[in-house]
Design brief:
Layout (H helix, E strand, L loop, with lengths): L1 H26 L11 H6 L1 H4 L16 H5 L2 H10 L13 H16 L1
Length: 112
């Protein structure tokens, strides 16, 4: 009688693991997933910079440009954290890790 119970318990643990691992990984998109798939970008940035990061008319500028490509990581991090012009500051709204991931993904997008 103990064997079926152990089998059921083990099956439940395995099933929960398969559901929990992808869920946990989805919380913090890695740099490899890309800017356009980053949930932080889609939620906070795409409204102004567009879903393809090519900018929007009367919105934010393109993030795929020679100007952005020439900017240092520190410049991009500073603009994202403290805002510039019409861009709001995201310090307190995004974590340092989220801002760093966005900066790395913006730079990677400009290298393609």
């Amino acid at each position: 009688m103990r064997t079926p119970l152990k089998t059921l318990l083990l099956s439940t643990v395995i099933a929960v693991s398969y559901l929990a691992i992808p869920s946990a990984a989805a919380q913090t998109p890695s740099v490899e997933t890309g800017l356009l798939a980053n949930s932080v970008y889609l939620k906070n940035c795409s409204k102004c910079h567009g879903k393809t990061a090519e900018g929007r008319h009367f919105g934010g500028p393109a993030l795929i440009s020679a100007k952005v490509a020439a900017a240092s990581a520190d410049d991009l991090r500073n603009i994202t954290a403290n805002g510039k012009g019409h861009m709001p500051k995201f310090t307190g709204k995004l974590t340092t890790n989220e801002i760093d991931a966005l900066v790395q993904q913006i730079q990677a997008l400009n290298k393609k």
